[in-house]
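ok so i was messing around last nite and threw this chain in just to see what happens. nothing serious, just curious
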Amino acid sequence: MNYLSILFLLFLGYASFAQHGTGLTPLEVGTKAPVFEAKDQSGTVVKLADLLEEGTVVLVFYRGTWCPHCQRHVSELQSGLEQLTAKGAKVVVVTPEQPDYIDKMVDKSEAVFPILHDKNYTIMEAYHTKYTIKKSDKIFFKGYVVAHTKKHNQAEEAVLPVPATYIISPDGTIKFVHFDTNYKERSTLELILENI
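result:
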């Protein structure tokens, strides 16, 4: 086996470790977005129906404050918030993390948009992002991911969302989806702005 073949196999092996949520499929563009309500970091109940009355909704899922990719993604959304709101969009972020950890994400990212605690994973289930890590999964730093997920969610099972983004039109239909089981692949600010 030549050197390039070995490198390619190593790359494939590493890529498989970056996956979680394999087998999940996103909601389709053009379908109605499931309604939801949940409390944000300030304890306010946030309802999708209310947000849609004000314009387009950018709905983003993140795994946890323990995930540096999630921290960067939420910080990027905050940095671009003025551009997003200028296009009439409301940003709302969903996580299975408990409120104490959401507060830490707010501190790290300086986010001023709602970050919702998805109690019982109901929003994640509705948007097809809920994934329970299995013993057979080959996830890079699996022990770290499982331990932190259980701790931050305060749960027996290690449940994560696919870090997806849904853009929802004011009429409640999904107009754009970014859904990648590779947790390193996130919707960029530019991509979101292009699709609002």
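not much to say yet. Residues 18 and 182 are 5 Å apart (CA to CA).
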